Amino acid sequence: MQPISPSQEDEGADSRTEDPIGTGILRRYWRDAIGRPGTGIRKVVQSLVADQATRLSDLFYAEILTDPRGERMLANGIVNQRLHASMADWIRRLFSLDASEADHFELQRMTGEIHARIGVPMDLVTRGARVIKREMSRLLVGGDFDRTALAKAIEYCNETIDLAIEMMNIAYASSAARLIRSEETYHLFFLGQNMKAERERQKTQLMEWINDLLIRSMSGPGDGQSTDGVPPKLDDSPFGVWLKHKASIIFTKEPEMARLLEHTARIEGELLPQLWSARGDARAVQPMMARISREVDVVKTLLGSMFDNLWQANEVNDQATQLLSRRYFPTAARREVELAMRNRTTFALLLLELDDLAQVRRMLGVNGSDAVMAQIAQAISDLVRAADFLFRLGDERLGALLVETDEASAVQLAESLRTTIAALTVRTPFSATYQVTVSIGIAMFDGHPDYQRVLDKAEEALAAAKSTQRDSVRLAT
After folding, report:
1. CA 146, CA 155: separation in Å to the nearest integer?
2. Is 469 left (phi over 0), alpha (psi -120 to 50) or beta?
3. N or C, fewer C-beta in 10 Å, the chain?
4. Of 290, 242, 244, which Cα lies nearest the Cα of 267?
5. Phi, psi of 253 (to 5 degrees)
6. Domains of the chain, first to last
7. DSSP, res 356
8. Tens of pLDDT along the chain (477 residues)?
9. What is the C-alpha separation between 31 and 38, in angstroms, rounded?
């Protein structure tokens, strides 16, 4: 590395375009930060970063992994590898002389929004950035700088990273605020549903589980009626899945929810194992079943109380189909990503698109096409579970977010949806009948913390299904 002195540096920076974030003071700080060291020092830093970006990325994530929140996020090997590569690219682009001011600001805006979307705490990012600054300072000290140039180089690196983090924070805060508003409205949507019918359905599912438990616990191991060593877990029952994925949204502010979860945890963790160890022995099973029944009665009482306490909210769903509108998809998808990562489960996203909306609209008009979509939505609703989420994502597109679903089940359901809709006789507002088909793209959650990845893969699969053969199902690779 050749020594650099201030006399070798050219001062000033070329004019820059408006930054997307729109914060004038940050633009001034940025121009000042890159103008003070001069092009000579900036070129040396750019070369250093190009050589050390991968190692700096490793140090960043090593620091992140010391925190349990970061450890959960990077538990998936594929995610770990991809994020490492993205971080190295971010460092190179941050110190690139070829990028414009607008490019720099757009990079930080995009990064901040992604962090908000996948729930990366900004304090972890700041902590990792501090490690990068410390290591870059150490590398610069080991270089061939005179004292003045060294001071300028270290100041340039530190201030550039600090400004990048500040820009990210602005974008992060704005995106997080939008998500919070969306989540609150999302909660109100569920309050606007038919809570009376939902309450009765969940009580019925709870009783079906306990009846199944009673029958299987009275049968001994190896008699064909029980699954040796594996009791029918409440957590995996239709009621349990609904409790995890929807009840926690509906009853987010209800104090009884914590008590209800205590009772279900006692059933799952304490009483079920005791019952299962005694199965086949009627004298031992009966008192255990009585205890479980009492716990279930408490759960039913708390559930009824919470439903009774809910206030009906304004309808915020798609008026034609009565499904969630597209604005709620990010909230639902982000939450399912968090649950899947926490519980080590998976989910599927199905995108269904009417194969020839233009023709339908020419023949039936906008109201007629909405009537078609409403009947398709009803057919889909009849086939999915209560815990799954359905959305209208566009004029001709619907989405189904299938929780705790494996690939085989997702493909099987998609085929059922396709054949059901193809056989459906749709009635129009003019009492005429019409036949329609849909193409379906499927994507499975692969452990990546950004829900946009699942959506992108499902859209690619849908495009492939429509381009090769309509009225078909395609699974993303």
Report:
1. 14
2. beta
3. C
4. 290
5. -110, 10
6. 6-181 (1.10.490.10), 195-309 (no CATH), 324-475 (3.30.70.270)
7. T
8. 333 333 343 333 333 334 444 467 888 888 888 888 888 999 999 999 999 999 999 898 888 888 888 777 666 565 567 778 888 999 999 999 988 888 888 888 888 777 777 777 888 889 999 999 999 999 999 888 888 999 999 999 999 999 988 888 888 877 766 666 566 556 555 555 566 678 888 889 999 998 888 888 776 655 544 445 577 888 889 999 999 988 877 787 678 888 899 999 999 989 988 888 888 777 888 888 999 999 999 999 999 888 877 654 444 567 788 898 888 899 899 999 999 998 999 999 999 999 877 777 777 777 778 888 899 999 999 999 999 999 999 888 999 999 999 999 999 999 999 999 999 888 776 666 778 899 999 999 999 989 999 999 999 999 999 988 889 999 998
9. 11
Cβ-in-10-Å burial (0-12, 13-18, 19+) of 275 comes to buried
3-state helix, strand, coil in the chain (%, to 5): 65, 5, 25
Is the backbone of residue 38 left (phi > 0), alpha (psi -120 to 50) or beta? left
Distance CA 364, CA 459 (A): 27
d(Cα 250, Cα 303) in Å, to the nearest integer? Answer: 11
Both tokens of residue 127?
């902590």
Residue 153: strand, helix, or coil: helix
Tokens of 128: 């990792």
Residues in the chain: 477
